[in-house]
Amino acid sequence: MRGDMFTPPLEQEEREQRRRQWKVLLITVLGFVLIGGGLLYWSARRTTSGPGGVAGTALTGFVSVGSPEFEAYRRFVTVEDQEATQAQNLIGQKQVVVYGRLTNRGSRTLTGVQVRAIVYDLENRPVAERTAFPIPRRRPSLGPNESMIIQVNVDTVPPKADPARFEIVIEGLRFQ
């Protein structure tokens, strides 16, 4: 109370106003941090592979491993020049980005390609995988003798895993 007696009323009022401004600023910053953190968490959950490494829902009309049509055409579709980079995503999780050149050496136009990127540890055990659909997601089709660069983000790598090897395998095809 003693400090209040000797403080002029205007100075006291200014001090209280500054406190209110700081509180409003702190609450605003805290709100933005919570919203930003929520968005990062949501986007990480949305892009993370689900059970079995499937990201999103499967597309229709694909022929897959084991079907005669897939097995007959599989040798014409390759993923070459595979490379990978490792980094941490925005929320600190380990992420491996696998790249490759998808080539259609056959005579049919592909309107869908399903690939799976698999990351292995030093003991050659798979530690993470992700399914992707570069066609039609990145490009509507891949004609005969055409190729394109594909990228698969594998963001489910366990923190203690030591990625040593990776591969992109073709799992499904859809023809025009």
Beta-strand content bin:
35-45%
Compute the number of helices.
Answer: 4
Just name the CATH architecture of the largest domain.
Answer: Sandwich
Distance, first to last CA: 84 Å
The total beta strand count reads 7
Low-confidence stretches: 46-57
CA-atom Rg in angstroms: 26 Å
Based on Cα principal axes, name the global outline: elongated
Biggest sheet features: 4 strands, antiparallel
Output the strand order for the largest sheet.
1-7-4-5
Indicate the CATH class of the largest domain.
Mainly Beta
List the helices and strands in order. HHEHEEEEHEE
Mean pLDDT: 84
Number of domains: 2
Please identify the structural class as seen in this structure. Answer: alpha+beta
Helix amount, in percent?
25-40%
CATH topology of the largest domain: Immunoglobulin-like
How would you characterize this protein structure?
With 176 residues, the chain is of the alpha+beta class. It has 2 domains: 2-47; 56-175, Immunoglobulin-like (Sandwich). It is 31% helix and 38% strand. It contains 4 helices and 7 strands. The strands form 2 sheets. Strands 1-7-4-5 form a 4-stranded antiparallel β-sheet. The chain has a 3-stranded antiparallel β-sheet with strand order 2-3-6, with no helix packed on it. A hairpin with a 5-residue loop joins strand 4 (110-120) and strand 5. It is elongated, with a radius of gyration of 26 Å. It starts with a helix and ends with a strand. Mean pLDDT is 84; it is low at 46-57.
